[in-house]
Amino acid sequence: MRAFVRNRFAPLVLVVAVLAALYGLALATRPTPPPPPSQAARKVAVESVTAVCPGARGQRVNVYLPGTVNTEALEDDEPYVTKGPGGLEAGYVIRAAAGRSRGLAGVRCTEPGAATWLVGPGPANADVRLHLVNADKAPALVDVHVYAAEGEVSGDKGVGLDIAPGRHREIDLRTLAPAADIMAVSVTTVYGRVAVAARTTMETGGVDWLPASAPPATRVVVPGIPGGGGQRRLLVAAPGETDALVQVKAVSKDAEYAMRGRETLDVPAGSVVAVDVTTGLGGSPAALVLTSPTPIVAGVVITSTGQPGDVAFTAGTPSLELGSSVAGNGAGSRLVLTALGRPGRVRVQVVPVDGEPEQPFDVDIAPGRTRDVRLRAQGQFAVAVTPVKGEVYGARVMEQRTRESVLQTVQPLSPARAWTMLPPLFDTPAVVTP
Questions:
Q1: Cis peptide preceding 308, ω within 30 of 0
Q2: pTM for this one?
Q3: How far is Cα of residue 186 from the mean position of the Cα atoms in its chain?
């Protein structure tokens, strides 16, 4: 034994033995390792919603919660703000039969957010009024950038606009970009949250509100282009520092195809390009699918027939993965739905202001096709669209005919506020690293 202790390797052997014993004990008693974090976003319920609309004295706002819809009168021109549980939607449609604002103008009450994109005619061709509302109890600061055919044209004039708590600002975009005939507008909050809307009155006649466009992406779907006569004009902006080569496909009621002579579109960096797609769509209800290696935003200007005609707008919109609802609807309303990739199906429910909700019904859409679905409800109503299968996009189209022309408004089916996608979270020091 004394010989073993005197051995110079004895301490090393003892250390190794002790470490092996400790490792074996730790291995036997270690807790079960947690599962690897999910790489996909999670669908979670929205608990509360704040919705904001520009004021319009004397109008009635439809306020929808799943299964019910009520109306509230606007007593003045101050912004309308409503708060409620998840699933809340609100909006209204104004019909003017005469005057400079003749037409149908529909607006969705938007939720305050960090960034908003709008695409449409510029101040050289229209009176465009940007409405910025701070519904929170903290101040907000926003930057407004206007892009036109020649690039960004607003300079520093829209940078650093402050909005006090509970206040709003109305901006005539002629003060930022008087010569722009087409435009993309970016409204970014430096701090705070701001609800954004823009009312556009065309010099040639017609009025409507610009719907918010999906943020810049390499694939953009612009749904809800109604069939019939009149002009259809596609606007595409590449707000980054790289030119965009955009592939354009149409999806009509009969086919999915590249329009002859308009298969691709070159958009210089920081600018907006317009192309007439009227003949390419051939009067069919349709959607446009745009792909580009460079992120883009897009929308379509829809002009009706008649003298004077009316105008409507649609814009790039996410799919109906989270469902959608439109609170303000009336006579002449219908859905224009498009399925991409494989067959699509949605469930539609009409909820009238007066009376019980109607029985839901399913609508099937063939892959690579667009379908027009008439809504035959009477009076004012809300409509809810729930996904069943497939990748489906859509919009609510509302048209009313007069002896002189067709009055129209379009509202893309934006994601319902009942659900949201929560990005994956990881246990990493990066979440607290400046």
A1: yes
A2: 0.87
A3: 13
